[in-house]
Write a structure and sequence with these properties.
heterodimer, A: alpha+beta, 3-stranded antiparallel beta sheet, 5 helices, B: 4-stranded mixed beta sheet, 67% helix, elongated
Chain lengths: 119, 194
């Protein structure tokens, strides 16, 4: 879920914080910029029925935004990411670090200074 | 009568037999009370209380439920966005179309309002949209009659058959917009429009 209240440490990459469909959509939005729903379903190859609910959720959680565009009397959503990939990464990192400090206090800070990447 | 309603093919006849079966059950309930000939029975009070509450909910609250939905969904009238849809529905019944912000394609009718999500407008072409709107317009047209059906079903504790109403609405939609448009719209939406 996008709310970051559930983090799966054992998952790969972005799916630690997002669901697989959410992470695919966010990656596409970060790399391609503005996109229509039809382009999103084409790029990610996820059927509309699965994408639609996820997009609603991402918009509600503040990761994606959308505006309504009228083309030849037809209505279209145009999606974009709210912040860049780096900004989102910073936000997620801060939230995770906050929760670590919250749980372990000074001990967590001590470990950050000693931390030197994956063994 | 219930068995007969299962055997009939025509949804309209099925609803009619279903209703008459329910009326029979209701008469049976009344007859039982009469034959038992006892006053001051708790179950009678409970039953009448139940009937009164369900009547208020079905005839009073549901009729104005669209006001609640408009506020909850933040829905707005569709006329400034796509005027032809409102004109199309105006020819079928008196109802206002509202759209709301969601990518999930859905359409439903409540009170004298039809709600469509922006996702639905995005996915369907003009003919398919007409089929969906005609389907919902049928519900609006018959909204003055369906509460009786629901109320009867509640009073006799027998399940009320929504699927029959959906079929009738589909028949109407196919008449107005063509069955091809209806089927392709159904194909595109995994969620059935309510």
């Amino acid at each position: 879920m996008v709310k970051l209240d559930q983090i799966n440490i054992s998952n790969e990459g972005l799916t630690k914080f997002f669901s697989p469909i959410e992470s695919m959509i966010m990656k596409t939005l970060w790399s391609e910029g503005e996109m229509m729903t039809s382009e999103l379903t084409e790029k990610t190859k996820i059927p509309l029925t699965s994408v639609a609910g996820t997009l609603d959720r991402l918009v509600k959680a503040g990761y994606a935004m959308r505006r309504v565009e009228t083309v030849n009397g037809r209505v279209r959503y145009v999606y974009a990411s709210v912040s860049s990939e780096e900004e989102a990464a910073t936000e997620i990192t801060t939230r995770v670090l906050d929760s670590l400090v919250d749980a372990f206090g000074p001990l967590a800070l001590e470990n950050f200074s000693k931390y030197s990447g994956k063994k | 009568m219930l068995a007969a309603s299962l055997m009939l093919r025509n949804p309209k006849q099925r609803i009619m037999t279903f209703v008459s079966a329910q009326v029979c059950v209701l008469l049976a309930i009344a007859a039982t009370f009469y034959v038992m000939n006892c006053s001051e029975m708790l179950s009678i009070y409970l039953y009448f209380g139940y009937v009164a509450v369900s009547t208020i909910i079905i005839f009073g609250v549901l009729r104005h439920y669209d006001r609640v939905m408009i506020r909850r969904l933040g829905a707005r009238p569709i006329a400034p966005l796509m005027k032809w849809t409102q004109d199309f529905v105006d020819r079928l019944t008196s109802a206002t179309i509202y759209y709301y912000d969601s990518a999930v394609p859905r359409a439903f009718a409540s009170g004298r309002s039809i709600f469509v999500s922006l996702g639905l407008l995005e996915v369907l072409n003009e003919d398919e949209l007409k089929a969906v709107l005609a389907h919902e317009a049928w519900h609006i047209r018959n909204n003055s009659r369906t509460p009786y059906l629901k109320q009867l079903a509640l009073m006799t504790f027998s399940p009320h058959k929504e699927s029959e109403l959906e079929k009738l609405a589909d028949v109407f939609a196919a008449e107005i917009a063509g069955s091809e448009a209806l089927y392709s719209a159904r194909d595109k939406l995994d969620k059935v429009f309510i």
